[in-house]
Each structure stands twice: as C-alpha cells, then as structure tokens.
Write a structure and sequence with these properties.
Elements: H1 3-10, E1 14-18, E2 21-25, E3 31-33, E4 65-73, E5 85-89, E6 107-111, E7 117-123, E8 129-130, E9 133-134, E10 139-144, E11 151-157, E12 178-179, E13 182-183, E14 190-193, E15 196-197
Parallel strand pairs: 4-14, 4-15, 11-12
Antiparallel strand pairs: 1-2, 2-3, 4-7, 5-6, 5-10, 8-9, 10-11, 13-14
Length: 201
Amino acid sequence: MDRKKFIITSSLTAFGLSTFGSIIKMPDGKFNGDCETTNDILGPFYRSDAPIRSNLTSEGLIGTRIELKGKVYKSDCITPLNNALVEIWHCNTKGEYDNESKDFNQRGRLMTNNKGEYSFLTILPGKYMNGELYRPAHIHYRVTEENSKELISQIYFKGDPHIEKDPWASKKNAELRILEIRPEDVNGNLTLNFDIYLKEK
C-alpha cells in the first residue's frame, strides 16, 4: 500500500476508544461511534416530577454516601450535551422506594451544564426480593434531551453477587453499566462515574 492510500485508509479507522466503544473519524471530518448507552427496564417505581436537586441525602439518612457523576454525550461519543435532563431514583438501604411522600426520597433530577456534566450526592441503595431472588443493588436513570432518543437504564455495582442470576443485570448489554466505586480523594469520599451516550432521534 502506498503512502497516499495508507493516509486515506487511516482516516477511516478508529479515532479512539471510549469506555463504551470506538469512535470513527469520517472523510468529512465528522465523528461517528458505537458508544450508545444501553437501555434497561423502567421498573414499577418511577415517579414523575421529582425535585430539581443534586443532593438526595438528608439528616439522619442511613447509608454510605457516594457522589454519582458523569457527562452526557451525543451519539458521536465526544460532543457533550448541555441541558439534558438526568433523572435518578433508587431504594433506601432497606430496599424500600419512596412511592408516595412529598419528600421524594432518593429521587431527583437536574440539567447538565455547558460541559455536559451532572452530579448527584446520594447513598448506596439496598436490595429487595424479586420473586425468589434478590435484585442486585441498582440505580435507575431516565435521560431526555430534545434532539436525542430517551434513555431508560440502570447501573449496577461491581462485585455484587446477585448480578449473575438477575434477569436484567446479567444480560450482555448490561456489562458496561456494572460500575466500580472508587475513593476519589484522601478523605475517603466515594465516587461512581457513569458517562451517558445518547442516540440521536
């Protein structure tokens, strides 16, 4: 292959790898990728109109605090999306959802900033029985943006022994949503990073 053909061919190869797939630079200079975040079930406990807030903790709340954060991107895998609405909800440490109170405990939503960033302070959720099995600990997501398809998904936690038999967490398309909790600083604060890649309408 001569140099000219090599340069042309190289322009079509993977530009880079993201956590969720590859990014391809096209001849017109635009990017395309296969990093779309996969869907999961909505579940029976979604409530609309949760408060706009980033802090889902309260005085006396039992549970390990974590910062859940990330960025929301377009389908090209590199362009951040501002003003995307990110909603999360999960159970408390006893496996109970707040389905009725005006406090909307462990429920919140916010808009991403101009860098596509979002961040919630919350607790690690507990578990509850689903038939004869425990569902692994999980946090629900709903992400909407005017030019993108709605995302309904869930994240899970590495090392959770109940993932293997769970009908949803054990699926192949959930692998990249099983995340590692990390101590981010010298004070032992725990963080969980989940970047989200939306598909265009």
